[in-house]
Amino acid sequence: MVSIDKAVIARITKGGEQFEIYVDSEKALEFKKGKEYSMENLLATNEIFKDAKKGDRASSSELEKAFGTKDVFEVAKVIIREGEVQLTTEQRRKHVEEKKLQIANIISNQGVNPKTKLPHPPQRILNAMDEAHVSVDPFKPADEQVKAVLDAIMEILPISFETIEIAVKVPVDHAGRVSSVMHNIAPVKKEEWKSDAWYAVIEIPAGRQNEIYEKLNNLTSGNAEVKVVSRKNI
Protein backbone atom coordinates (compact mmCIF):
# COMPACT_ATOMS: atom_id res chain seq x y z
CA MET A 1 0.00 0.00 0.00
CA VAL A 2 1.39 3.38 -1.06
CA SER A 3 1.57 6.19 1.50
CA ILE A 4 -0.79 9.15 1.21
CA ASP A 5 2.22 11.46 0.81
CA LYS A 6 3.26 9.70 -2.40
CA ALA A 7 -0.23 8.98 -3.75
CA VAL A 8 -2.17 10.87 -6.43
CA ILE A 9 -5.90 11.22 -6.91
CA ALA A 10 -7.91 9.16 -9.40
CA ARG A 11 -11.44 10.38 -10.03
CA ILE A 12 -14.59 9.67 -12.00
CA THR A 13 -17.99 11.29 -12.40
CA LYS A 14 -20.98 8.96 -12.20
CA GLY A 15 -24.59 10.09 -12.29
CA GLY A 16 -23.48 13.68 -11.85
CA GLU A 17 -21.50 12.85 -8.70
CA GLN A 18 -17.71 12.84 -8.38
CA PHE A 19 -15.84 9.99 -6.68
CA GLU A 20 -12.13 10.01 -5.81
CA ILE A 21 -9.48 7.66 -4.45
CA TYR A 22 -5.80 7.92 -3.53
CA VAL A 23 -3.62 5.61 -5.64
CA ASP A 24 -0.05 4.75 -6.52
CA SER A 25 0.29 6.69 -9.78
CA GLU A 26 2.56 4.32 -11.74
CA LYS A 27 0.73 1.16 -10.71
CA ALA A 28 -2.62 2.79 -11.42
CA LEU A 29 -1.47 3.70 -14.94
CA GLU A 30 -0.24 0.16 -15.53
CA PHE A 31 -3.56 -1.20 -14.21
CA LYS A 32 -5.40 1.16 -16.53
CA LYS A 33 -3.41 -0.29 -19.44
CA GLY A 34 -4.33 -3.86 -18.49
CA LYS A 35 -1.73 -5.05 -15.97
CA GLU A 36 -3.26 -6.78 -12.97
CA TYR A 37 -2.67 -5.53 -9.44
CA SER A 38 -4.49 -6.20 -6.19
CA MET A 39 -6.26 -3.08 -4.97
CA GLU A 40 -4.38 -3.36 -1.67
CA ASN A 41 -1.19 -2.58 -3.62
CA LEU A 42 -2.77 0.30 -5.52
CA LEU A 43 -4.72 2.20 -2.90
CA ALA A 44 -3.25 4.49 -0.26
CA THR A 45 -6.40 4.12 1.83
CA ASN A 46 -9.39 1.84 1.47
CA GLU A 47 -11.82 4.72 1.18
CA ILE A 48 -13.89 6.24 -1.61
CA PHE A 49 -14.21 10.01 -1.34
CA LYS A 50 -16.50 12.65 -2.79
CA ASP A 51 -13.65 15.12 -2.21
CA ALA A 52 -10.39 13.43 -1.25
CA LYS A 53 -8.56 16.61 -0.22
CA LYS A 54 -11.35 17.53 2.18
CA GLY A 55 -11.68 13.96 3.44
CA ASP A 56 -15.36 13.92 2.42
CA ARG A 57 -16.18 10.18 2.16
CA ALA A 58 -18.83 8.69 -0.11
CA SER A 59 -21.56 6.73 1.65
CA SER A 60 -22.36 3.10 0.94
CA SER A 61 -25.71 4.13 -0.52
CA GLU A 62 -24.02 6.59 -2.88
CA LEU A 63 -21.61 3.89 -4.06
CA GLU A 64 -24.45 1.41 -4.55
CA LYS A 65 -26.43 3.93 -6.57
CA ALA A 66 -23.53 4.98 -8.81
CA PHE A 67 -21.62 1.71 -9.22
CA GLY A 68 -24.13 -1.01 -8.35
CA THR A 69 -21.90 -2.16 -5.48
CA LYS A 70 -20.57 -0.82 -2.19
CA ASP A 71 -17.41 -2.95 -2.37
CA VAL A 72 -14.57 -0.44 -2.15
CA PHE A 73 -12.14 -2.51 -4.22
CA GLU A 74 -14.65 -3.07 -7.03
CA VAL A 75 -15.51 0.62 -7.09
CA ALA A 76 -11.80 1.51 -7.12
CA LYS A 77 -11.27 -0.71 -10.18
CA VAL A 78 -13.96 1.18 -12.08
CA ILE A 79 -12.56 4.56 -11.06
CA ILE A 80 -9.06 3.65 -12.27
CA ARG A 81 -10.10 1.92 -15.50
CA GLU A 82 -12.77 4.38 -16.61
CA GLY A 83 -11.78 7.57 -14.83
CA GLU A 84 -8.87 9.99 -14.76
CA VAL A 85 -5.59 9.33 -12.96
CA GLN A 86 -3.59 12.42 -12.06
CA LEU A 87 -0.15 12.58 -13.64
CA THR A 88 2.93 14.54 -12.76
CA THR A 89 4.32 16.71 -15.57
CA GLU A 90 7.08 14.18 -16.19
CA GLN A 91 4.67 11.22 -16.20
CA ARG A 92 2.36 12.93 -18.67
CA ARG A 93 5.26 13.78 -20.97
CA LYS A 94 6.51 10.19 -20.85
CA HIS A 95 3.13 8.61 -21.55
CA VAL A 96 2.25 11.11 -24.28
CA GLU A 97 5.56 10.40 -26.05
CA GLU A 98 4.95 6.65 -25.81
CA LYS A 99 1.48 7.05 -27.30
CA LYS A 100 2.75 9.32 -30.10
CA LEU A 101 5.31 6.69 -31.04
CA GLN A 102 2.64 3.98 -31.12
CA ILE A 103 0.51 6.13 -33.43
CA ALA A 104 3.49 6.94 -35.66
CA ASN A 105 4.34 3.24 -35.96
CA ILE A 106 0.77 2.40 -36.99
CA ILE A 107 0.81 5.09 -39.68
CA SER A 108 4.26 4.02 -40.88
CA ASN A 109 3.15 0.38 -41.10
CA GLN A 110 -0.11 1.06 -42.91
CA GLY A 111 0.50 4.23 -44.92
CA VAL A 112 2.86 5.23 -47.72
CA ASN A 113 4.11 8.31 -49.48
CA PRO A 114 1.69 8.51 -52.45
CA LYS A 115 4.53 9.63 -54.77
CA THR A 116 7.17 7.04 -53.91
CA LYS A 117 4.84 4.28 -52.64
CA LEU A 118 7.28 3.83 -49.77
CA PRO A 119 6.42 4.11 -46.07
CA HIS A 120 7.30 7.23 -44.12
CA PRO A 121 9.73 6.41 -41.28
CA PRO A 122 8.15 6.82 -37.81
CA GLN A 123 10.48 9.74 -36.97
CA ARG A 124 9.28 11.67 -40.02
CA ILE A 125 5.70 11.17 -38.85
CA LEU A 126 6.61 12.26 -35.32
CA ASN A 127 8.22 15.41 -36.73
CA ALA A 128 5.03 16.20 -38.66
CA MET A 129 2.96 15.63 -35.50
CA ASP A 130 5.16 18.12 -33.64
CA GLU A 131 4.94 20.64 -36.49
CA ALA A 132 1.15 20.34 -36.54
CA HIS A 133 1.02 20.62 -32.73
CA VAL A 134 -0.95 17.38 -32.50
CA SER A 135 -2.36 16.54 -29.08
CA VAL A 136 -2.71 12.89 -28.12
CA ASP A 137 -4.50 11.26 -25.21
CA PRO A 138 -2.05 9.10 -23.21
CA PHE A 139 -4.87 6.76 -22.19
CA LYS A 140 -6.89 6.41 -25.39
CA PRO A 141 -5.88 3.44 -27.62
CA ALA A 142 -3.44 4.47 -30.34
CA ASP A 143 -5.53 3.04 -33.20
CA GLU A 144 -8.49 5.17 -32.15
CA GLN A 145 -6.38 8.33 -32.51
CA VAL A 146 -4.87 7.61 -35.93
CA LYS A 147 -7.60 9.33 -37.96
CA ALA A 148 -7.40 12.57 -35.97
CA VAL A 149 -3.61 12.59 -36.28
CA LEU A 150 -3.79 11.95 -40.03
CA ASP A 151 -6.26 14.80 -40.47
CA ALA A 152 -3.81 17.09 -38.67
CA ILE A 153 -0.63 16.15 -40.55
CA MET A 154 -1.82 15.40 -44.10
CA GLU A 155 -1.00 18.91 -45.39
CA ILE A 156 2.51 18.62 -43.96
CA LEU A 157 3.14 15.00 -44.90
CA PRO A 158 1.10 13.44 -47.74
CA ILE A 159 0.09 9.89 -46.78
CA SER A 160 -2.14 7.36 -48.48
CA PHE A 161 -3.37 4.18 -46.86
CA GLU A 162 -3.05 1.31 -49.31
CA THR A 163 -3.09 -2.45 -49.30
CA ILE A 164 -1.08 -4.39 -51.82
CA GLU A 165 -1.20 -7.96 -53.02
CA ILE A 166 2.16 -9.60 -53.52
CA ALA A 167 2.81 -12.80 -55.43
CA VAL A 168 5.31 -15.03 -53.67
CA LYS A 169 7.26 -18.03 -54.91
CA VAL A 170 9.19 -19.99 -52.27
CA PRO A 171 11.40 -23.03 -53.00
CA VAL A 172 9.94 -26.24 -51.65
CA ASP A 173 12.75 -26.65 -49.10
CA HIS A 174 11.51 -23.54 -47.28
CA ALA A 175 7.82 -23.73 -48.17
CA GLY A 176 6.40 -25.30 -45.01
CA ARG A 177 8.00 -22.83 -42.65
CA VAL A 178 7.25 -19.79 -44.83
CA SER A 179 3.63 -20.81 -45.33
CA SER A 180 3.13 -21.15 -41.57
CA VAL A 181 4.67 -17.75 -40.84
CA MET A 182 2.79 -15.95 -43.61
CA HIS A 183 -0.56 -17.38 -42.54
CA ASN A 184 0.08 -15.99 -39.06
CA ILE A 185 0.99 -12.45 -40.07
CA ALA A 186 -1.11 -11.63 -43.16
CA PRO A 187 -4.12 -12.82 -45.17
CA VAL A 188 -3.07 -15.42 -47.74
CA LYS A 189 -5.57 -14.85 -50.56
CA LYS A 190 -4.44 -17.75 -52.77
CA GLU A 191 -1.90 -20.51 -52.49
CA GLU A 192 -0.76 -23.48 -54.52
CA TRP A 193 1.65 -26.24 -53.61
CA LYS A 194 3.75 -27.66 -56.43
CA SER A 195 6.65 -30.06 -56.50
CA ASP A 196 9.20 -27.27 -56.87
CA ALA A 197 7.72 -24.44 -54.79
CA TRP A 198 4.93 -22.83 -52.77
CA TYR A 199 3.08 -20.14 -54.70
CA ALA A 200 0.89 -17.61 -52.90
CA VAL A 201 -0.80 -14.24 -53.16
CA ILE A 202 -0.64 -12.32 -49.88
CA GLU A 203 -2.41 -9.09 -48.93
CA ILE A 204 -0.50 -6.64 -46.72
CA PRO A 205 -0.61 -2.93 -45.78
CA ALA A 206 1.66 -1.12 -48.22
CA GLY A 207 3.74 0.26 -45.37
CA ARG A 208 4.74 -3.26 -44.32
CA GLN A 209 6.17 -4.15 -47.72
CA ASN A 210 9.84 -3.86 -46.73
CA GLU A 211 9.22 -5.70 -43.46
CA ILE A 212 7.55 -8.63 -45.23
CA TYR A 213 10.23 -8.78 -47.93
CA GLU A 214 12.94 -8.87 -45.29
CA LYS A 215 11.15 -11.62 -43.40
CA LEU A 216 10.76 -13.70 -46.57
CA ASN A 217 14.44 -13.23 -47.41
CA ASN A 218 15.49 -14.26 -43.92
CA LEU A 219 13.26 -17.34 -43.97
CA THR A 220 14.53 -18.48 -47.38
CA SER A 221 18.15 -17.28 -47.27
CA GLY A 222 17.29 -14.84 -50.07
CA ASN A 223 15.64 -17.41 -52.33
CA ALA A 224 12.08 -16.05 -52.29
CA GLU A 225 10.69 -14.41 -55.43
CA VAL A 226 8.25 -11.54 -54.78
CA LYS A 227 6.39 -9.01 -56.92
CA VAL A 228 3.50 -6.60 -56.40
CA VAL A 229 0.43 -7.64 -58.40
CA SER A 230 -2.14 -5.07 -57.25
CA ARG A 231 -2.71 -1.98 -55.12
CA LYS A 232 -5.84 -0.46 -53.67
CA ASN A 233 -6.56 2.51 -51.44
CA ILE A 234 -8.17 1.85 -48.10
Task: Describe this protein's structure.
The structure is a single chain. With about 230 residues, the chain is an alpha+beta fold. It folds into 3 domains: about 5-85, Hypothetical 12.0 Kda Protein In Nam8-gar1 Intergenic Region, Chain: A (2-Layer Sandwich), CATH 3.30.1250; about 90-160, SBDS protein C-terminal domain, subdomain 1 (Arc Repressor Mutant, subunit A, Orthogonal Bundle); about 160-234, Alpha-Beta Plaits (2-Layer Sandwich), CATH 3.30.70.240. Helix content is about 40%, strand content about 25%. The strands form 3 sheets. Strands 6, 7, 8, 9 and 10 form a 5-stranded antiparallel β-sheet that branches. Helix 5 crosses helix 6. The protein is elongated. The chain starts with 7 loop residues before the first strand and ends with a strand. The model has no long low-confidence stretch (mean pLDDT about 90).
Write the layout of secondary structure elements.
Layout: E1 8-14, E2 17-23, H1 25-32, H2 39-42, E3 49-51, E4 56-57, H3 60-67, H4 72-82, E5 84-85, H5 89-110, E6 111-112, H6 122-131, H7 146-153, E7 160-171, H8 172-185, E8 188-193, E9 197-205, H9 209-220, E10 225-233
Antiparallel strand pairs: 1-2, 1-5, 3-4, 6-7, 7-9, 7-10, 8-9
